[in-house]
Design brief:
Residues 605-643 are annotated as: Disordered. With 661 residues, the chain is of the alpha+beta class. The chain folds into four domains: 3-66; 75-335, no CATH class; 345-481, Four Helix Bundle (Hemerythrin (Met), subunit A) (Up-down Bundle); 499-656, no CATH class. Helix content is 53%, strand content 15%. A hairpin with a 7-residue loop joins strand 5 (435-438) and strand 6 (446-449).
Length: 661
């Protein structure tokens, strides 16, 4: 089935999906009205049936029609504030023969997306807004930005049946994503699958049509370059966020986000590396479904295009911002969720972040020394003495991941000791003002001595960690550098567990719980939600929103506070001996063997361990605990991958347990 016939079928199916239930209710009401005139008793029974069916249909339709209406992202930028940007946007819309978006919003992600607010699941269009990622302004030229704008706006050009069918498709998919488990979602999911299959070729055609509009506006070469650049910008933004923006949160300062990203992209090593990674990513990309062509497939089609514009505008897209030195920081401030502190230049930010990081690692070294039981002080000279005695493995053992495979332990001992001891040396130099961290857009900040020489702490301490006979030589070198060997940071406090994701609900100890997977252990919180409430959450928007808000509150609450709640169970990763996962279709069961002796740090109530959900394994010193999913279990975040990372080599899974990989 091709062209308008497929679009007509999709629209007709959607109208039928909305009309048939209403017609069924009207039919029952008519039957009731007819029956009650002849027999009051039968009429009342028919009326009760009509009322029951009508209430059920109304509840389901209300839940479906109210789902998917998420608030737009970013901050609004109007035409008065940024006239050049809006003129470019209107020119692109005119070329695409499409309406300009009602609203332009700038976001902090390297994405561009047209969102439409609709009624009746896409059947009627209400308003549209374009979300433009600020990083795109930093990494694209004016003509390349025009190309990606034309690509996005061109997907929705015209008002034909195919555009309507794709709009319905997008609204239906968004509505399903917004639903929690329940009968409404179960029923609606069948329609979603059918709608996806019918409209997939239409959605693919709209993507290709958007590329054609981009070529007509910016030319083949620029459109292809913009497609490749977007992939590189997404990869670059991930690296920039992890390596540089994270500095700001660690030291509580506000960075110059966009200028920093431009400097990051313009560094020769970054530019070359991102270009190569973008090529690899494009070559390795697999299409999620028939509606989403890969970048490589789109580039193959674009190679056959022949249009080239008379001229291009190779200025940075930031040139479209009226006063970038003033307006860009203002937009960045509005995008920030919270106040990080005073605005700080990147060189100073790198210096502060470096000082913070080595102090944290030096504290981790002191903590490992105190927990190890090795008879030595947590100072540099004390650690060197223990290494010289051959006690490196015992000294650093508390800092190792308990899920390491046995064959990796020796390597981890050397790497971890090298990292923490090297950081402690740098921390001593920084605190004595003999060194500082220097910003490097090509990689991690470097350590500079006061005489201008660079110091590589890894090369400095690794040989002595590998061969304790070299410790005296390292000792003399540190004295020569002026390192105060009596330096030590206070032992680091127990780190706050970081949440990977939530599975809700699960079955444990015969009752329903929320399972929170963290990087330090598993937290089980009694789920007070009743089964009827969960059924209603699938149909009623307020109930569904309440359930979402409840899980959001759990995710935002520090783990140490959640552990204080009544009935909370904490299964610490350090107490886990083995973990085994059994999967049966969509259901799974996690079996944990824990050491719950006097040294255990887990917090498991005796009622839970005596409930029948736990048992004694072959090793009498351990307790076996089982956690099961239920048909209505839903995941939030990335709990399954987090569980795999948490358990590491201790987890045994079947080969087909792909969700936990």
């Amino acid at each position: 089935m091709r062209g308008p016939w497929r679009a007509a079928l999709a629209v007709a199916l959607h109208i039928g999906f909305l009309v048939v239930p209403a017609a069924l209710v009207l039919g029952l009401v008519s039957i009731t009205a007819y029956t009650i005139r002849h027999d009051l008793g039968d009429g009342l029974q028919a009326g009760f049936a009509a009322l029951l069916v009508g209430a059920s249909v109304a509840m389901v339709l209300r839940g479906v029609l109210r789902a998917g209406h998420r608030p737009p992202l970013g901050v609004v930028v109007d035409g008065d504030a940024q006239p050049q940007l809006w003129r470019r946007l209107r020119k692109v819309a005119e070329t695409a023969e499409a309406d300009s978006p009602d609203e332009l919003r700038v976001t902090c992600e390297p994405t561009l997306r047209m969102r439409e607010r609709t009624r009746l699941l896409g059947l009627l269009r209400s308003e549209s807004h374009l979300e433009l990622g600020l990083p795109l302004l930093a990494g694209l030229t004016v003509t390349e930005l025009s190309a990606v704008l034309a690509d996005e706006i061109g997907k929705g050009e015209g008002g034909g049946l195919d555009a309507l069918a794709v709009r319905i498709r997008n609204a239906v998919i968004e509505a399903e994503r917004d639903m929690v488990g329940g009968p409404t979602k179960w029923l609606f999911s069948g329609y979603v699958v059918l709608c996806r299959r019918i409209t997939a070729p239409l959605a693919r055609g709209r993507v290709m049509r958007g590329d054609a509009v981009a070529v007509s506006l910016a030319g083949k070469r620029t459109t292809m370059a913009a497609l490749r650049k977007r992939v590189g910008l997404e990869l670059g933004w991930e690296d920039y966020s992890a390596e540089y923006l994270s500095m700001a949160t660690r030291v509580g300062r506000t960075p110059e986000i966009l200028p920093g990203f431009r400097a990051f992209l313009e560094h020769p090593e970054r530019k070359h590396g991102l270009a190569e990674r973008a090529k690899e990513s494009i070559a390795a990309e697999k299409s999620a479904d028939a509606a989403s062509p890969t970048v490589a497939q789109r580039l193959d089609v674009l190679k056959r295009a022949g249009h080239e514009p008379d001229e291009t505008d190779d200025r940075p897209a930031l040139a479209l911002i009226r006063e970038p030195r003033r307006d860009v920081p203002a937009i960045e401030d509005r995008l920030l969720v919270g106040d990080l502190g005073e605005r700080t230049p990147w060189p100073e930010l790198a210096r502060l972040a470096g000082m913070h990081d080595v102090a944290v690692k030096a504290g981790e070294l002191s903590s490992a020394v105190e927990q190890s039981g090795v008879s030595t002080e947590p100072t540099l000279v004390g650690v060197l003495t223990a290494i010289h005695r051959g006690e490196t493995a015992d000294l650093i053992n508390p800092a190792l991941n308990p899920g390491l495979a046995p064959e990796l332990v020796d390597e981890a001992v050397v790497d971890t000791m090298t990292e923490l001891l090297g950081a402690a040396v740098v921390d001593a130099l920084v605190r004595s003002e003999r060194a500082h961290h220097q910003l490097d857009w090509g990689g991690p900040s470097t350590v500079q001595l006061t005489d201008g020489r660079a110091l590589d702490p890894d090369k400095l301490v690794r040989p002595a960690v590998l061969d304790p006979r070299l410790v005296p030589g390292l000792h003399r070198h540190l004295v020569h550098l002026g390192v105060p060997l009596d330096h030590a940071q206070p032992a680091a406090e127990e780190p706050e567990p970081k949440l990977s994701g939530i599975v809700s609900p699960v079955r444990y100890a015969g009752e329903s719980y929320d399972l929170l997977v963290t990087d330090r252990g598993l937290l089980l919180l009694p789920d007070r939600t009743r089964w009827m409430y969960r059924l209603l959450a699938g149909a009623l928007t307020p109930v569904r929103r309440s359930e979402h808000e409840r899980l959001d509150r759990l995710a935002a609450t520090p783990a140490h506070r959640l552990r204080e709640l009544e009935g909370a169970q904490w299964l610490d990763s350090r107490d886990v001996a083995t973990a085994e996962l059994h999967e049966d279709g969509a259901d799974w069961e996690l079996t944990l063997d824990l050491y719950l002796d006097e040294y255990a740090v887990s917090e498991v109530s005796s009622r839970a361990t005596d409930s029948g959900e736990s048992e004694s394994p072959d090793d009498e010193g351990m307790t076996r605990i089982r956690i099961r999913s239920i048909p209505d279990s839903g995941a939030r975040g990335a709990p399954y991958s987090g569980l795999g990372e948490l358990m590491g080599a201790r987890m045994a899974t079947a080969e087909n347990n792909h969700q936990f990989e």
